[in-house]
Amino acid sequence: MSIAMTNASLDDVLQQIKQQTGYLLLYNSNEIKAVRGITINRQQAPVEEILREVLKGSGFDFSIREDTIVIRVGDRPLNSPPQRVTLTGRVTNRATKAPIPGAMVLVKGTTVGTTTDADGRYTLRFPKRQNVIIAVSFLGMESREVAYNNQTELDVQLLDKVESIDDVVVTGYAQVRKESFTGNTTRISREQIVEVSPKHMIDAIQVFDPSFRIAENISMGSDPNSLPEFYIRGQNSITTELNNSADISRQNLTNNSNLPIFILDGFEVDVEKIYDMDPMRVHSITLLKDAAATVLYGSRAANGVVVIESRAPEAGKLRVSYNLTGSVEIPDLSAYNLMNAREKLQAELDAGLYAFDASDVTENTYTTNQTYYQKLNEVNRGVDTYWLSKNLRTALNHQHSIYIDGGENDVRWGIELKYAGNKGVMRDSKRDTYGAGLFLDYRIGKFQIMNRASYDANNSSDSPYSFSQFSHMLPYNVPIDETTGKYLQNLRFGYSTLNPLYEREYLNNFNRSNYRTLQDNFAINFYATPHFTAKAWITLSQRNYESRVFVDPLSSSNSAFATPQELGSLTVNGSDTFSYDANLLFMYNRNFNKHFLNFSLGGNAVENSYTVNNIKYIGFSTGALNSPNDAAQVDGKPSESKNKTRLVGMFLSGNYTYDDIYLLDLSVRMDGSSEFGSDNRVAPFWAAGAGINIHNYKFLRDHPVLSRLKVRGTIGTVGKVGYAAYSARSTYTTSSTSDWYATGAGHILYYMGNPNLGWEKTRIADIGLELGFFKDRLLFKASYYDKKTIDQITDVTIPSSSGFTSYKDNLGEVSNRGFELDLRYNFYRTKDLEMTLFGNMAHNKNKIIKINDALRAYNELVQKQYEDYDDNSTQSKYAQTYTQYVEGGSIYAIYGMKSLGINPANGKEVYLRPDGTITYEWNAADQVEIGNTEPWAQGSFGLNARWKNISLFATFLYEFGGQRYNSTLVNQVENANLERYNVDRRVSTDRWINPGDVAPLKDIKDRTLVTRPTSRFIQDYNTLQFNSLSISYDFPSKLVKRWGLGMLRLTANIEDLGYYSTVLQERGLDYPYSRTINFTLNLTF
């Protein structure tokens, strides 16, 4: 440094050194007041030389440790020196007894202090006086203050610092003080997660943040292999596929463009890894919702970010943690209201399936009447088969995890073993996961080196039979040969007499899959100074997936026209994925009096490559021989596709705080990706936020009532990749035919690319308020947001003469606006009893701002779906509602014709055209918005109570203000096929039968016309769900120690206790819902 001063005091010189170097200075200002008259002129000299020169002859000496300069009294006495004392001692870690080098030891209230050496020892000299307090601190540990009582030695032990879960925000790159952060986040602890669901953490998130919602899947119910679909703050993607199926499989969920990204310990992972993760290994989950919170993820952040921190090993003696969760899963069939055998036969009679008019007797009517009496005989002799339960079971499951950790301050390690067996309530369905992990944490000097290696595996099996096959079965059919006790291959009555129980019991149909994942995370942290840190980390991941679906050659699902060499099939699908994610981060923070600055500069590079293979074998002699070697031939041509994507990004983030009152956040990121068009590879993203901690003003500090008052606001732009790899470039594929040319196989243009294709961009504005009363025992949070997605990726229609009908471009615009409320009140608290009520609510309004010609063409295609309808139409596609896109409308809108109800005179439906005229004719062009599935509000509420060692946690979910198209009334009542299937009881009570009947449903004798979408089936959808109830008991610590344990806890948890809905519809069409009782044992020794 350079310094030029004349006749200056030592204090002035030291302040100049501090200003230029940024070093922290420790000294007694009263002692150095007498040192004056210093003249110095040095240019670009080392700080050590300057200090020696200015302290020469002053009686003071100095030492420099890292970025701290300590000025202390030297060996030579000063004139009239004050009486001084010397204190020595050692600073250690209380848990590990290891020394702590570099700890700060200060005389409280002064700048007199020193730091510990490599062995944790210190020597502190200070003027003797009364009421001296020694303060000891170290980064990452709890500070301690100890009274000085004239002793000459003082040893101090420090504890590892445990941040409150509510005090910090985890962004995936770093931890930020919540007090100084302007972004909108929600953080959930492990304890909160397991109280709601000890097996699946995703199920628990929606309880604690109403903006995170799992979409209801009435088709797949509790299927353990059907991953949930969820979103944060509404959906913003438009699809032009004519498919309203609710079946969310592992494959299509991967391409779900409304899905948030998941960050586990700094690395992006797929949702399946989170779904299969043991909640007991989680430290916390943080939801990042607005631009200020998510901008560091740039092009991946538009749907929100979910950050998961796993538990790290702790220093100390060897510790073993074991967790066992046993569960009983019971099928829930309460949503079904099917007829019994007598009711079903009577409904057939009312519908006119049998003719008893003597004047109209034909051979056909004689046969049908004979069938009626045969059925009646079965009913009269007590046949009433409850088919719903025939392929179900009460599943007994168990989940285990063992974690062993230990080590000292400089070396920590942890070993994890886990297994989770999950049998579904349908026979032949299961999902078994198991894995192992090794974590190492090595600290030497200023470096910290960490490595986490993990292996995860999964074996899954789906039932080859849909639950709907059993719910449709006729109750007067007997499934078992009463003579032999074996299942019948063919049943006596019905259009299709095949018995699914026969196939399940005697054939070898199966649907199995598995994956194996090996992942290694390596990180190096360099703590250069208390203010500057550099981090580098990389993850390598390899995943192999395979599924096998086998159809027995004797199965009824084989084609009736298949030859013996074509009976039976084995479909094998596989994928291999390799990815790496490398990150580099530099962080600097500094305090200047009341000013605090925090800067981050970082970047990352990501590559994902995957190969997908598909092949189908046909022709099997028997179901017992079902390997590819046993097949007669390959069906068609095997396929293989390879994809590779790369992303590189850099970001700069800054945070400024003044006196913990005024807050400012600024961030910018630049991303480049191979997934975008060649002319649009790079895009910028940014965010800004400001806030005020009003409760930190002097006049409000320590206020007896108001403990928190914070206002904040953020705005920024983030992005999303909402399309498959290579959508931006023209792609060729090998011809699927067997044509072979002199030069080899032919190739054809598979997809027309767009070199200008870029990111979807979402601008998010967010304002929020936080209020706390009575030391935060009553907490209230409110926020309002405005999300506008522009440059939305949609299909653009082009003339078919080009060889394609569409290509992708950035054209659509969608808006989501809403608010979120959260209230928590700790209304009773004593030593033994504590009770807390909580509740939250989220409101979102979705709006389509702009559509293009391709979406208009899609709407026309929807109308064409009904063109082939005639008076004999029975196809279910005509009864289905399809999404349509209209500017000013919503992506949640339901379209159909407005209905005036059923005419009591003739049992026919009367429609209202958009022009106000009335008609009996349904017309696709007259469809309008008749409902909206988006709720006005959704959220949760509950009670958390603790009495001594017993804890109770109850949660409820609610939703109101939306509508549903009651497909059960359409398909199982009005369009019910009484000849073939069992039906809902409302067929007999809600349908028109005779002239003059005022009924909501059409003539029961009308069995040929399928009802097309109409407002008659729109119903208000309000629900209340008793989501979970958990009771736990912590054994007293004295008793636990007597048993040689560190902790012992027992928990009973019940999931999905009750469900109420204003829409009475069948739920669990392909896989039933269930109720689960969990028993959990947690122990540590």
Structural description of this entry:
The protein is mostly beta strands and 1085 residues long. Among the domains are: 3-158, Sandwich (Immunoglobulin-like); 168-319, TonB-dependent receptor, plug domain (Ferric Hydroxamate Uptake Protein, Chain A, domain 1); 337-382, no CATH class. It has 15 helices and 55 strands. It has a 22-stranded antiparallel β-barrel. Strands 15-20-21-18-19 form a 5-stranded mixed sheet. Strands 8-7-10-11 form a 4-stranded antiparallel sheet, with no helix packed on it. Helix 3 crosses helix 4. The two termini are 56 Å apart. Mean pLDDT is 86; it is low at 76-81 and 243-254. Its main location: membrane.
SSE topology:
Layout: E1 3-8, H1 10-21, E2 24-26, E3 38-42, H2 47-55, E4 60-65, E5 68-73, E6 84-93, E7 104-107, E8 113-115, E9 121-127, E10 133-137, E11 144-147, E12 156-158, E13 168-170, E14 175-177, E15 185-189, H3 190-196, H4 201-208, E16 212-214, E17 230-232, H5 250-254, E18 261-264, E19 267-269, H6 271-275, E20 282-288, H7 291-294, E21 305-310, E22 316-332, H8 341-350, H9 363-380, E23 395-407, E24 411-423, E25 430-444, E26 447-462, H10 467-471, H11 500-506, E27 510-527, E28 532-551, E29 569-592, E30 595-618, E31 633-634, E32 639-658, E33 662-673, E34 682-693, E35 706-720, E36 731-734, E37 740-741, E38 744-745, E39 747-751, E40 760-773, E41 778-797, E42 806-829, E43 833-850, H12 853-864, E44 893-896, E45 898-902, E46 909-912, E47 918-919, E48 928-932, E49 937-947, E50 950-965, H13 967-974, H14 986-989, E51 991-992, E52 1001-1003, E53 1018-1034, H15 1037-1042, E54 1047-1061, E55 1073-1084
Parallel strand pairs: 2-5, 6-12, 18-21, 51-52
Antiparallel strand pairs: 1-3, 4-5, 6-9, 7-8, 7-10, 10-11, 13-14, 15-20, 16-17, 18-19, 20-21, 22-23, 22-55, 23-24, 24-25, 25-26, 26-27, 27-28, 28-29, 29-30, 30-31, 30-32, 32-33, 33-34, 34-35, 35-40, 36-39, 37-38, 40-41, 41-42, 42-43, 43-49, 44-48, 45-46, 46-47, 49-50, 50-53, 53-54, 54-55
Helix pairs in contact: 3-4
